[in-house]
Amino acid sequence: MAKQKEKAKHIPVVTKKSLDFFEKYINNPSPTGFEWEGQKMWLDYIKPFIDEHYVDNYGTAVGVINPKAEYKVVIEAHADEISWFVNYITKDGLIYVIRNGGSDHQIAPSKRVNIHTEKGIVKAVFGWPAIHTRSGEKEEAPSLKNIFLDCGCTSKEEVEALGIHVGCVITYEDEFMVLNDRYYVGRALDNRAGGFMIAEVARLLKENKVKLPFGLYIVNSVQEEIGLRGAEMIAHRIKPNVAIVTDVTHDTQTPMINKITQGDLSCGNGPVVSYAPAVQTNLNKLLIKAAEENNIPFQRQASSRSTGTDTDAFAYSNDGVVSALISLPLRYMHTTVEMVHKEDVDNVIRLIYEALLDIKPGHDFRSIK
User: Fold this and answer.
1) Per-residue pLDDT tens for 287-339?
2) How many angstroms separate the CA atoms of 353 and 347, rounded?
3) What domains, with CATH codes, occur in the chain?
4) What angle do CA 107, 152, 173 make, to 5 degrees?
5) For position 338, what pLDDT does the model report?
6) Please, what is the Cα angle at 82 between 77 and 84, to 5 degrees?
7) Is 173 in contact with 16 (CB distance < 8 Å)?
8) pTM beyond 0.90
9) Which residue in 232, 189, 247, 238 sits closest to 218, CA to CA?
């Protein structure tokens, strides 16, 4: 019988202090287009680890190490979470919504939400007819045409008196938890888990007194959920030589997911490296070499025409930026119970950290020279 390959020994990276930050960061709302409170929190956390920082006109936050260096490397994640907009208020005081990003209408019924107004947070729920009242009738599935919010008002005027108007953004109330001492669970792990992980890379560089030979730009972008917009803008401002992007990808081990179309990926088996036109081949090889040399488990994913992540925005910006993607396996994407494995979080941080140590200024990543 062939000897089974030994599982790589797990090396913890996340500390109690950093986990406390992670929990607060996840619980703080950061809807697309309204990310500023989360960005302030993120910047406050990374300031001790960086030399300078700035925020662009739309809220993308950037921490910089060694800012005077000519050669520039980006590590990037996106900060925004899916949400809803108030779209229509009925005369009876019920509220209909439209998406802000890829919000899933099927999970909405019976969810508690926060409506963000200039007067503060207004609590509401997504209502749904009781099962008793649907008896004997054809079941109607949740859709954008029939999901609605109830904030306890009986008229449009009463709703408006609370400060609610068309265009107010709505986020779910669900909060962070640790499941079976194995998984982090919460809303918006897609992709504030990424923002957390790149912040932890900056922390490790500082604590280990690493002197990088290039400028490192730790980028927490906005508006990824509506088309990679924040990454588009900041890529043109920074003009990096190299970009390593981290985002989430699907764990495909749960029911109703087809591995033939979605691939065979699992939480707990390590970071995922992607193969796609936007992923620069030799940078990808550098990531794989860093994983192998440092005994970091990893998985592979084929992403076809595009990665669907900020990798695409960086790769095709300027004159073409050498870019690659490290993904964190995640269950139940775009729900309020997104799940990621604690060991995978540690190992994504380790992989980005080790890859940075292998990059040298002037590194020629071209295959044809």
Assistant:
1) 999 999 999 999 999 998 899 999 999 999 999 999 999 999 999 999 999 99
2) 10
3) 16-81+187-358 (3.40.630.10), 83-172 (2.40.30.40)
4) 40
5) 98
6) 155
7) no
8) yes
9) 238
